[in-house]
Amino acid sequence: MSEAVIAGVGMTPFGKFLNRSLKSLSEEAVKEALADANVQPGQIECVFFANAAAGVVTGQEMIRAQSSLRNTGLAGKPMFNIENACASSSSAFNLARAAVASGQYECVLVVGSEKLSHEDKKVSFGAFARAVDIEEDLGAHIGTGTGSVFMDIYAAKTRKWMQTAGVEKEDFARVCVKSRLAGSLNPKAQFRATTTLEEVLSSRMVSDPLTLFMCSSIGDGAAAIVVCSEAYARKLGVKPVHIKACSIVSAPGIPGAELVAVSAARLAYEQAGLGPRDIHVAELHDASAPAELIHYENLGFCAPGEAGALIRSGDTGLGGRLSVNPSGGLLSRGHPIGATGAAQIVELTQQLRARSGERQRHGAKVALAENNGGQLAGDSAVALVTILAV
């Protein structure tokens, strides 16, 4: 197998856009990615299109790629519709990499697009609620019945983790402050205002210990990535970002099994021949603030019980030794679930190309993305870890 590379990326601003459609969001991201890669639509051989919730929120089912991309010049190309909860577009990226590395295609496109905002918030929350095994009894996972199933699940996990993790609520607030600072410097982020520890801690309690600012918000957006062979990238005259690893693990559905994020990270490090200390910049799935700290442990960035010390050290801040979520992450960049994984790759590609402005982790050569989705037997249903390098 040959190595696949990233030739170009693009994304829309993330936010709540009630007047925008899945089609318009997709078109904007695709146009930007193709221009960044110096590629014309006719040069794209195949499209991997990711969306998680259109069937619930907009009613569009079955042909989401074909309907969303019909005006982009890509009509008629082979298109695959990928749905894998919040990991939909990272799953599409995984398939795109495999298609190029195998030699099946030379140049393909990944699109992650999501329209979550709705005049009736119950519709949006209802989409999230379907990312569980609906035949399971959720009572063991849900604590306070806030109406947001996943925030109740995250809160229950957090309360259990805090018993041995050596962290305090203030550490979760530190994640939020760091996230909002990064978001304030990202023109594509949903939340652009900075905040303070006091404001985070005093914001409305959603599901103890999670306050409002500690929870990712509903949003809309799209991101796109051109993946090609290294030889094709040279023809395009672009600086390639190498895909060193992209692992995917589904939950075995057995309580007490190794966490999927831990398994995916181990596989990715093995594929890349690298370890946690080699990573300069990372985008982690911080659907809630505690999740970032939990993933510090899952990914080997610190030993169990040391996540609190790591966030307090400043090493994971902007420009730190290991800059984590310089885009603002899900908390501040936003979390239109089908676009989230691709947006992580967009940010890391820009970081490795030294195009991130005030968010730049100087000297970044190796980057990692962790994206997970759904819920099964007390763990995420799926997790992916991607490692990129220049």
From TrEMBL:
<dbReference type="InterPro" id="IPR055140">
    <property type="entry name" value="Thiolase_C_2"/>
</dbReference>
<keyword id="KW-0446">Lipid-binding</keyword>
<keyword id="KW-0813">Transport</keyword>
<feature type="domain" description="Thiolase C-terminal">
    <location>
        <begin position="261"/>
        <end position="382"/>
    </location>
</feature>
<dbReference type="InterPro" id="IPR020616">
    <property type="entry name" value="Thiolase_N"/>
</dbReference>
<feature type="domain" description="Thiolase N-terminal">
    <location>
        <begin position="5"/>
        <end position="230"/>
    </location>
</feature>
<keyword id="KW-0808">Transferase</keyword>
<dbReference type="InterPro" id="IPR020613">
    <property type="entry name" value="Thiolase_CS"/>
</dbReference>
<dbReference type="Pfam" id="PF00108">
    <property type="entry name" value="Thiolase_N"/>
</dbReference>
<dbReference type="InterPro" id="IPR002155">
    <property type="entry name" value="Thiolase"/>
</dbReference>
<dbReference type="InterPro" id="IPR016039">
    <property type="entry name" value="Thiolase-like"/>
</dbReference>
<keyword id="KW-0445">Lipid transport</keyword>
<protein>
    <recommendedName>
        <fullName>propanoyl-CoA C-acyltransferase</fullName>
        <ecNumber>2.3.1.176</ecNumber>
    </recommendedName>
</protein>
<dbReference type="Pfam" id="PF22691">
    <property type="entry name" value="Thiolase_C_1"/>
</dbReference>
